[in-house]
Amino acid sequence: MNLSPDPIHFIVTLALSFLTGLEVKTYRMQYHPDSTTYFFGATRTITFIGILGFVLYTIAPESLIVYTSGLICFSILFALFYNHQLQKKKITILLYLVSIVVYTYGPLTVLYPLWMPTLLFVLIVFLLNAKSTISTISLKINARELETFGKMLLLSAVILPLLPDTNVIPYIPLSPFKIWLAVVVISTISYGGYLAQRYIFPSRGIIITGLIGGTYSSTATTVVLAKKAGEYDRKEVITAAILSATAVMYIRLIIVSFAFNTKIAENLISPFLFFAFLGFIAAWAYSRKAKNDSHSTSVQITGDNPLELGTAFIFAALFVVMILLTHAATQYYGGSGLRVFSFIAGFTDIDPFILSLLTGKYSIDHHELLSAIIISAGSNNILKGIYALWFGGWSKTKHSFFWLLGLGLVTIAVGLSAGQLP
After folding, report:
1. How far apart are CA 308 and CA 411, in angstroms?
2. Can you give the residue range of the structural domain that contains 109?
3. CA angle, corner 298, sides to 296 and 304, nearest 5?
4. Which of 23, 107, 211, 364 could form a disulfide with 57 if both were Cys (CB 3.0 to 4.6 A apart)?
């Protein structure tokens, strides 16, 4: 025998409302055990609100007049209660908001699949139990970073769709839309590493710092870790962290390549994963020498928020400059000129250069572009080796220098051979 859907909807509404009421009671007992009149209702009240919402919606589902009238009456009743609580300097509308969500259980159960009201119930449970966690996170988050994130959302979600997707800038073979899209993508990837390092793993050891820093900026991470080597006895830990950052850089470049040029990215997988594997193996070997000291101290990678508007605009400017220089190198000197320029570009911020190769249209074979990307990554490793030696000193960072120099030279050799492919 098939049951009518109405009883099933009613049972689901009743169950979710009752469970929400139990969660509200638990919340009151945990965070406000001494407040008997601080909140509006508990288990039974919340359950009846859910039932009331279902019944009033069922009476007139087309016009919603009865359902809306019930919501207005309930809101007026709560307003009177809230005014009374204000006189006692007790201010909260949390349970009113929960009650409004419960009031929608009935219509949602009728109109949508079961996952919709269930998801709301799960969110209520999560938010009520996450009070301490949310308070802790809100205290740690810099309000200026939230403001910056909001500005970047504006530029990404509002401005980006408005930019023309045609080549309207002279001598630049790329549309404003694709230029800014590249900025948004690389900034988002860097921002993920920035947030992880700053808020999720702020004090989790030097090696974790190297791993997370590699997603943000392996060069900046190398400089900071090398400076830390001067005041830290265990040079093996510093070496492991620096090599970890460089290994992560290879993986990061693969991800960036897949975002813009799948063909080149597929050719980068084998060599870059191999180099990343070498970096991780070497880092693991040095961390084993350091034993448990890899977690005995922490390093904070400082730097500009990659979603700062100034940082984003500087990156966009560097991106455009790299496009112009790359176009000139390929036009006048061909593949050999591009290889020389890619080596030089590796001693700068390689992200704008690599993005210019991945997104631009040039009159050379894609193997030449692949070669240039690999060579720039190799010369960037040499730069990081020099930084490590300069800021950390010979006795503390010579192992980092030799590893980065070796990885750089091997990477460049692979890049040169890639350019010779048919």
Report:
1. 32
2. 5-135
3. 175
4. 107
On whether the CB atoms of residues 395 and 354 are closer than 8 A, the answer is: no
Shared domain check, 231 and 131: no
Q: Are 388 and 400 in contact (CB under 8 A)?
A: yes
Q: What is the tally of structural domains in the chain?
A: 2
Burial of 162 (0-12, 13-18, 19+ CB in 10 A): exposed
Listed in sequence order, the residues at least 6 apart from 164 whose beta carbon sits closer than 8 Å to its beta carbon are 175, 176, 177
From 83, 114, 135, give the residue that closes a domain.
135
Both 230 and 271 in one domain: the answer is yes
127 and 157 fall within a common domain: no
Query: For the segment 153-171, what is each residue's pLDDT rounded down to a tens digit?
Result: 776 777 777 788 777 666 6
Q: Would you state the structure tokens that stand for residue 265, as one six-digit string?
A: 């990215």
User: How many other CB atoms sit within 10 Å of the CB of residue 400?
Assistant: 29
Structural tokens at position 229: 């080597």
In terms of domains, do 209 and 259 share one?
Answer: yes
Q: How far apart are CA 303 and CA 220, in angstroms?
A: 8
Token digits for 128?
């009520």
Same domain flag for 156 and 197: yes
Please tell me what DSSP assigns to residue 2: P
Q: Which of 12, 13, 9 is nearest to 48 (CA)?
A: 13
- Residues 261-305 have pLDDT tens digits of 898 999 999 999 999 999 999 999 988 876 554 444 555 555 555
Question: What type of residue is 339?
Answer: R
Query: Vertex 213, ends 209 and 217: CA angle to 5°?
Result: 160
Which pLDDT tens digit goes with each residue over 252-263?
A: 999 989 988 898
- What is the Cα–Cα distance from 382 to 411, expressed in whole angstroms? 10
Residue at a domain's end among 135, 169, 187: 135
Segment 105-115 shows an average pLDDT of: 90
Whether pLDDT at 54 is above 50? yes
Which token pair is 333?
């000197």
Q: Which of 53-57, 191-195, 312-316 has the lowest mean pLDDT?
A: 191-195
Q: Could you tell me if 212 and 356 lie in one domain?
A: yes
